[in-house]
Design a protein that fits this description.
By secondary structure, the chain is mainly alpha-helical. The chain has a domain of about 170 residues. It has eleven helices and six strands. The strands form three sheets. It has a two-stranded antiparallel sheet. α7 runs antiparallel to α10. The two termini are about 135 Å apart. It comes from Staurois parvus. It holds the Pfam family SPEF2_C. This is SPEF2 C-terminal domain-containing protein.
């Protein structure tokens, strides 16, 4: 830039120099021509004028103009040229200083720009490197989630099971949403009925029912000979092994032990009531007092407006009468729906008492008076009940 400016200034100066030299030459030519004309005019005489008076003096020749002082002009010209040259030198010197300052600034700008460029370039390279690393990690995570989805689907296909919960593939995450079900839960199977387990010497409800049916066939009225009762028990303990007719402890009774049980129930008589035996064998259950039996009788009478002394089991009148104990109990419900509920023995005993203690039960009609009388006779047998349990 400075070189171009110098060249342009030098070209202008050269052009001005040429113009000044041309003017000087013209001026010199003009001055020389003027001096020659003045010299010629002095030598030539002027012609006589006819109107000139006599005795008059003729005007003399005109004085020649002095030639221009060439040395003074040259000195002034040289002084101007020197002044211009000095101004040009100062100007060029100032331009060179400015050029050096500008070059220094440009070098600083260039150095700073290169530093910034290198910094930006390194940051860009690191950014691209991080982006490639992140993209690779995200790709691997997505492929891992897809593999997990494939493995889950393969497991269900190979095991022939339905996918119950929603499979969610969300960006890089794969999870099973337990909040969303693809199909509703299957209806759980009904809980199996409660089963009473045999324990020690206590007869189960099913065993009591089997004994009741067998004694009912032999003696429908409830009265049986002591000898026949002994024979029946002996047959049950010896001929029915493995059919769960009696508890395991009862199956090992000997003949003297059975005779002792019969004697304690018959009180030395040849006849006995097998219904009382079933009531004693169904223990344990809450034994009533006389007051509780009277209150129960009054509740039965309240359901019998015709004063017939019977209630109809078909109409569930018997189940509506409150006895001296209830079959309601707090039961722990198992968490597993395939497990049966706990067996409520007292509730089933209340139902079986209507079979055991009704000697005149016909057409689902229960004589509650005879039913109550069956329990009133039990206190006489209480001392002997301990001997029955000891014998068993």
């Amino acid at each position: 830039m400075m070189t171009l400016e110098k060249e342009s200034i030098e070209a202008e100066e050269e052009k001005e120099q040429q113009m000044m030299e041309a003017r000087e030459r013209e001026r010199a030519k003009a001055s020389q021509a003027a001096s020659r004309e003045s010299v010629k005019g002095a030598k030539k005489k002027p012609p006589k004028s006819p109107n000139r008076k006599k005795g008059g003096k003729s005007p003399g020749p005109s004085a020649p103009s002095p030639p221009p002082s060439a040395p003074e002009d040259n000195t002034e010209l040289q002084r101007q040229q020197e002044m211009q040259m000095k101004m040009k030198q100062e100007y060029f010197t100032a331009l060179e200083c400015e050029e050096a300052a500008v070059n220094a600034r440009l070098e600083l700008i260039k150095t700073k720009a290169l530093a910034v460029y290198q910094d930006v370039l390194s940051k860009a390279q690191q950014t691209y490197k991080d982006m490639n690393m992140w993209l690779g990690a995200r790709f691997l995570a997505e492929m891992s989630s897809i593999d997990k989805l494939i493995q889950t689907a393969r497991h269900h296909i190979e095991t022939s099971t339905k996918i119950q919960y929603e499979l969610v593939l969300e960006q890089t995450d794969f999870y099973i949403s337990s909040d969303v079900k693809v199909f509703p839960d299957p209806i759980p199977p009904p809980r199996p009925p409660p089963v009473e387990a045999s324990s020690n010497s206590t007869l189960t409800i099913s065993q009591l029912h089997r004994l009741h049916r067998q004694f009912l066939q032999m003696a429908p009225e409830g009265i049986i000979s002591s000898k026949k009762f002994t024979e029946i028990l002996m047959d049950l303990t010896t001929m029915n092994l493995g059919d769960d007719t009696l508890p395991d402890v009862w199956m090992h009774l000997t003949l003297p032990e059975i005779q002792e049980i019969t004697s304690s129930l018959s009180l030395g008589s040849d006849m006995m009531n097998w219904r009382r035996f079933l009531l004693s064998a169904s223990l344990p259950w809450p034994y009533p007092s006389l007051l509780q039996l009277l209150e129960t009788l009054q509740r039965f009478q309240a359901t019998d407006p015709d004063m017939c002394g019977i209630v109809d089991e078909k109409e569930e009148t018997y189940s509506q009468v409150e006895l001296w104990f209830t079959g309601k109990a707090e039961e722990m419900v198992p968490e597993d729906p395939t497990e049966p509920l706990p067996f409520n023995r007292l509730e089933h005993l209340i139902k079986s008492f209507s079979l055991t203690c009704s000697p005149t039960r016909k057409h689902n009609l229960l004589s509650f008076a005879m039913w109550i009388c069956c329990y009133t006779s039990l206190p006489i047998q209480i001392p002997q009940r301990d001997s029955i349990e000891r014998s068993v």
